[in-house]
Amino acid sequence: MLIRQLLVIMSLLNDVFKGVVKGVRLSKDHIIESYIKVPIGLLLMLCALYGINEGIDFHFPASVALMLALFISLCLASLKWKHKVSQIVKIINIPAGFALRWINIFFTPAFIPLPLSSWISAREALTIAAIFIFGFVLAMVGMAYATVLMQRLFKKTRRSTVERAEELESSKESNLGASTSSYKNEQNIENTSKLEESNESSPTHSRSNSIGGLLSPVDTLRQVPQNVLDDIARGDEDELELQYRRSITLSRQATRREFEVATTMDDIVSNSHSTEPSTDGGIPSPPSPVAKPLSKGSVNIFIETKNKLFCRRASLAQTQQIERHLKIAYFIQNNFDYMVFTTLFIVSLPIYFTLDYAMPLHLSISIFTFLFMINVPPPKWRKYLHPVLCSVGISWLLYYIFSLMKHEDFLDSLRQYKTGRNYLRLFNHRQTNKPPGAGDVFSTLMDCSIVSLSISMFNYRDDLIRHFSQIVPVIIFMTVTNFFIYPIVCYKLGLSPENSLGFAGRSVTLALGTPFEDSLGGSQQLMACTTVVTGILGALFGQKMFKWMKIREDDYVTRGITLGLNCSAIATAHLLSIDPRAGAMSSLAFTLFGTLMVIFAAIPPLASVIRSWVGLE
After folding, report:
1. Residue 242 lies in a domain
2. Which pLDDT does position 616 carry in this prediction?
3. Checking phi first, is residue 294 left (phi over 0); if not, alpha (psi -120 to 50) or beta?
4. Based on the structure, what is the number of domains in the chain?
5. Contact 292, 319 (CB under 8 A)
């Protein structure tokens, strides 16, 4: 009995070892991409930002300066060296793609310190709500009709030819649910085919994850587009339309291809009864959907088709060993990032309680809560439960629990979240001697995300030229209105100077709204809250408002520009799921609008005039 138990334990340890080795090998490409190439690219980007910040004599965000310089350089170089520029863009997109896909979590430093802000009166809160609602409706109506007017003046009315999901089955299912289903089928097919290939050769293919598994920094956009596109969209409108059509075709082919794989029984028989170890270390056929359904009926089928007599019990035992080996490999492959984050959390506990340094703990909690809000809520609820707002609320609760365990005041714990020691002040001990917090890490990566917007704008350069006459006049009008009218109106209605300036960035995406408010000295907390709520309202009621304004459903230019200027990237993500070409226009609109707002705020005479209007100068 003891010998049998030892053999079972040794067999289990052997399977664990093989599974770990195979899981790491399958994750090799992902490790190289996400944990070597991406950090090196981000470090080079931060070095360039630091040099620009030290070299600029006037007050202008280094991230926006590098974004504009990179965008202009790529556009000019593509005129003569198009192929070489495309190769350069692929290299830049390694760190840039990471920064854009994780951009939502970089917004949390604007929300976490909210309990540290001064309280406002009930009258000012009601005034903020009234200005917000009135401004939202007025801006939606004004921008929509202004875009229609520009199209009629220049006679460039364009209609979308995309057959959208909600036009075919709008009353049956939500668009995000349909999008998730098609991507799940596509990913299941990809996982099956890749693991079949690994049975014959060592795994050198790129890492693939299931929808329900790991949201890796590199693969998140491809696998769960409705989640990571919350704050940025890429690709020109024609390419997005082709991708949309391709996803529909793949969803129709998924069931048929899975059935064909499931009916290929010869591979199961050979894998189930092979007692010779693999010479190349490859993984046998995947346990799903091929190896798992080894029921009694399927075994009888194998006996009848192959005319082989074998012990059913031995076959099932061998299959269980194969499945255990594969399950471990699958688990490591699909949860490698989670294992890294869990290790960070475990290591952060003794650092937090013994060294009194909260950054690793706050960082791991913020990441876990954000991924939880991306994965757990059903797709139809994600429009309401925005991951940034909800993850901040859960993080507050966990921070409070850990502060109680440490017998520390909750507000003192929040003060460690963002100390101001980001990459620009990391080597300057005269300004602050406090170590960086989790918010400083996120704000540092936010600057990388702003620079990465240049790649998005470069991809849209053809759309910008094509729709220049409709986009630019409307953007200039929206910029002048928000920059010069919002602050003075809010101040006259009783808002504080900081909140009045904070309202000027209501429609600016958070990535560009942060440097905008830094230049003006406005409230980043108010700007962040109004921006997120505006985006959610645009996703929920934007299409209904277009219907009420009698804007055609196929007028993707008007719909894209209107939602992009008013509701920034959150509504853009929703728009991409129902009309990709409108989503492309929306992405271009909010990026240009935010850039122009930052440029206005960085001009000292203009900033001084606005600040004097609200009583700050």
Report:
1. yes
2. 83
3. beta
4. 1
5. no
